[in-house]
Design goal:
mainly alpha; 2 domains
C-alpha cells in the first residue's frame, strides 16, 4: 500500500502542476515554432517555419515560454511516475 499511496500522491502533484500551467498567466515569450523551436520573431508576416516547414494556424500558436514547457514536462513525469508506482504497488501488494 505504500507504493499505491506514493503513486496517488505523485498523480495528485502532476494534476496540480497541469492545472497551474493551464490557469497561470505566463508572460509571452518570443515567437517560436512549436515544432522545432525556431525563433520566428523576425518573420512578421509568415506563419510557416522556414526551418521545419510547420505552418501555424494563427499567431497565438507561436508564442510559448520555456517555463510552460518545463511545467508540462514535470506534470507528465509526475503523473507517469505515479501510475507506474501505483501499478507496481497493486501487483506486488505493497
Amino acid at each position: 500500500m505504500v507504493l499505491v499511496t506514493l503513486g496517488a500522491a505523485l498523480i495528485g502533484a502532476g494534476c496540480v502542476a497541469a492545472l497551474a500551467v493551464w490557469t497561470e498567466d505566463f508572460p509571452p515569450g518570443p515567437r517560436r515554432c512549436v515544432g522545432c523551436g525556431y525563433d520566428m520573431a523576425a518573420l512578421l508576416e509568415s506563419l510557416r517555419c522556414p526551418e521545419c516547414g510547420r505552418a501555424a494556424v494563427h499567431d497565438g500558436e507561436l508564442v510559448y515560454t520555456a517555463r510552460q514547457m518545463r511545467w508540462r514536462l514535470r506534470a507528465a513525469l509526475w503523473c507517469g511516475s505515479g501510475l507506474v508506482l501505483g501499478v507496481l504497488g497493486v501487483l506486488t501488494g505493497w
